[in-house]
Amino acid sequence: MKIIGVTGGVGAGKSTVLEILKEDYGAGILMADEIGRELMEPEGACFAQVRDAFGEGVMKRDGTLDRGKIASAVFRDQAALKRLNGIIHPAVRKETERRLQDLEISGKEIAVIETAILFEAGYEDICDVVWYVYADEETRIQRLMKSRGYGRDKCREIMANQMPDSEFRRRSGVVIDNSGSREDIKEQIATSLSL
């Protein structure tokens, strides 16, 4: 089974690449953010640790964690972010590796791990190749304003906290330019899979 790591900045269009890999090639898709969300549910492996680390103030009335409050708590507090990442990242990694085994057992030829922090979380060591999905800054801003309702300043603030383009390019084996049409992206994916 070929394991492809897919990464890139916010708004680059990683989801388009994932859709094509799933629809056209039958790839098994593992999204680290989704796995992290599942692990923070009340029955998840990280729930109690996050609640204990951040206190009752991050709880909703229904007994679930308020992800918005947690995000606010860590946004400008590096120590709090480090504490949260120390709980979430190892658990997500363990669950991702378990799901990779399931995909291999099920006969998948391609598995994809998608995360914006692929390098920061050390996933490149379990990937056969890393694909960097690129789109220029203005395209990304327009996508985020449309899809998430962010203002231009918020988009820039988020982007400033992510790895720069030059570093993504240096550390990735393949660059998928997602500034063009879906057909153009499909051609780049077909070429990249044949490498």
UniProtKB/TrEMBL annotation:
<keyword id="KW-0808">Transferase</keyword>
<feature type="binding site">
    <location>
        <begin position="11"/>
        <end position="16"/>
    </location>
    <ligand>
        <name>ATP</name>
    </ligand>
</feature>
<dbReference type="GO" id="GO:0005737">
    <property type="term" value="C:cytoplasm"/>
</dbReference>
<keyword id="KW-0963">Cytoplasm</keyword>
<dbReference type="GO" id="GO:0004140">
    <property type="term" value="F:dephospho-CoA kinase activity"/>
</dbReference>
<comment type="pathway">
    <text>Cofactor biosynthesis; coenzyme A biosynthesis; CoA from (R)-pantothenate: step 5/5.</text>
</comment>
<keyword id="KW-0173">Coenzyme A biosynthesis</keyword>
<comment type="function">
    <text>Catalyzes the phosphorylation of the 3'-hydroxyl group of dephosphocoenzyme A to form coenzyme A.</text>
</comment>
<protein>
    <recommendedName>
        <fullName>Dephospho-CoA kinase</fullName>
        <ecNumber>2.7.1.24</ecNumber>
    </recommendedName>
</protein>
<dbReference type="InterPro" id="IPR001977">
    <property type="entry name" value="Depp_CoAkinase"/>
</dbReference>
<keyword id="KW-0067">ATP-binding</keyword>
<keyword id="KW-0547">Nucleotide-binding</keyword>
<dbReference type="InterPro" id="IPR027417">
    <property type="entry name" value="P-loop_NTPase"/>
</dbReference>
<dbReference type="GO" id="GO:0015937">
    <property type="term" value="P:coenzyme A biosynthetic process"/>
</dbReference>
<comment type="similarity">
    <text>Belongs to the CoaE family.</text>
</comment>
<dbReference type="Pfam" id="PF01121">
    <property type="entry name" value="CoaE"/>
</dbReference>
<dbReference type="GO" id="GO:0005524">
    <property type="term" value="F:ATP binding"/>
</dbReference>
<keyword id="KW-0418">Kinase</keyword>
